Fold this protein.
Amino acid sequence: MAWIMLIVAGLFEVVWSYSMKLSNGFTHLAASAVTIVMMMASFGLLSLAMRTLPLGTAYTIWTGIGAVGAFVVGVVFLGEQLSLMRVCAAVLIVGGLVLMKLASGH
């Protein structure tokens, strides 16, 4: 169950980072509200997952999901640059996440 909470927390991190971008520096109320709610949900689920998962594993997986997810959202929805080097960086992050999961023993 901790892994499910951690994955959902990471997905919520992607949502809040995207909504923060849309908030334009917290000047748009709806996007700002989504950002704050998703941040609280993401941090809350992360804290619950950390009850059983090691700190280093949980935090690394959470930030990795957020980083790769924000990269994908940026490319797909915001028209950000897609280059071979950026894709390789994302692949390396995913590889690190897999290694962290395998090394965690959970």
